[in-house]
Specification:
- The chain is α/β, with parallel strands linked by helices.
- It contains 9 helices and 7 strands, in the order αββαβαββαβαβαααα.
- Helix 2 crosses helix 7.
- The longest helix is centred in the middle third of the chain and has 20 residues.
């Protein structure tokens, strides 16, 4: 990151390994590299950290608009963030969009075909702990999930819906996304990054998509002290909110459902093709086998 900002995150093999992580600013790293070309460099680090004797408890926050059928569409975002900044874009903006989408749809007094369930997940930054706990607690209804829709890319103007390698969703979703044309977000993106609360859903074969947004300066401020409210564009956030609400309603009312839950061999093939198999194994454990 620029201007000596520090990047905060968990190590790549969390949550299995509780390894200490120290961030070094880019400019300081370049200084060390220059010094190391001339001589051996010795550093002394003073680190203040502690682990409480009892792990802290967290809760997910869940609400729903009941549907007339048995299917469920989950709309979600994570409300936890790293301690350097306010987490305004990662992922306060996603939480705001989901909350406002719920308010809008509720105010319409709609009766969707599928239940629309809104979930704020905790513990995403530590390894999708909240979404994993949610899925473990709802094992009996996983076959009823039409789709999971996540927002975790910051409040930039929406580009469209990323299907995370589920190319089988492209054709059935195309007409359903037409209402998003008004905000320029009806494009279907065949891939899209997997790396938020969508990952545990995908690892269990549930169709998961994301509202993709313009990059903007999200990566610069993400996980840094500058992730503050002044970086959130209200106009873009309004368009993101509309995109989440429209997508959720269209998928909930679709007949038939636009996707299906994948079986174990299909899940493995998808995760291999999208280079997420190892991460899925880490999330679910060494002995993980798709169910």
């Amino acid at each position: 990151k620029p201007h000596r900002m520090l990047y905060t995150s968990a190590y790549g093999i969390y949550p299995r390994a509780a390894l200490p992580v120290l961030s070094v600013a880019k400019e300081d790293t370049e200084l060390l590299r220059r010094l190391m070309k001339k001589e051996t460099v010795r550093l002394q680090l003073e680190v203040h950290n502690d682990f409480p004797p009892v792990p802290a408890g967290e809760r997910n926050v869940i609400a729903e608009i009941p549907g007339t059928g048995k299917d469920i569409v989950v709309v979600g975002a994570h409300f936890d963030s790293w301690d350097w900044g306010q987490g305004a874009n990662d992922n306060g903006s996603g939480v705001a969009a989901v909350l406002e989408a719920a308010r809008i749809l509720r105010s319409m007094d709609i009766k969707p075909r599928a239940t629309i369930r809104f979930v704020f997940f905790s513990g995403e930054e530590e390894g999708c702990l909240g979404s994993r706990a949610y899925l473990d607690a709802h094992k009996a209804e996983l076959d009823r999930y039409r789709m999971f829709i996540v927002m975790d890319g910051g409040a930039q103007l929406p580009l469209g819906i990323g299907v995370k390698g589920r190319h089988d969703l492209l054709q059935p979703l195309t007409p359903l996304m037409e209402p998003l044309h008004a905000i320029g977000a009806n494009r279907l993106l065949p891939d899209g990054e997997v790396g938020s609360d969508d990952e545990p859903f995908i690892a269990l074969g549930i169709p998961a998509v994301e509202l993709n947004t313009e990059p903007g300066d999200y990566d610069t401020n993400h996980h840094a002290i500058t992730d503050t409210l002044d970086k959130v564009d209200p106009r873009a956030l309004s368009a993101d909110t509309a995109g989440m609400a429209l997508a959720a309603l269209a998928i909930a009312n679709a007949d038939p459902a636009p996707g299906r839950r994948l079986q174990a061999p299909e899940i493995v093939e998808l995760l291999k093709r999208t280079n997420n198999l190892d991460e899925a194994r880490l999330l679910r454990g060494d002995s993980w086998v798709p169910q």
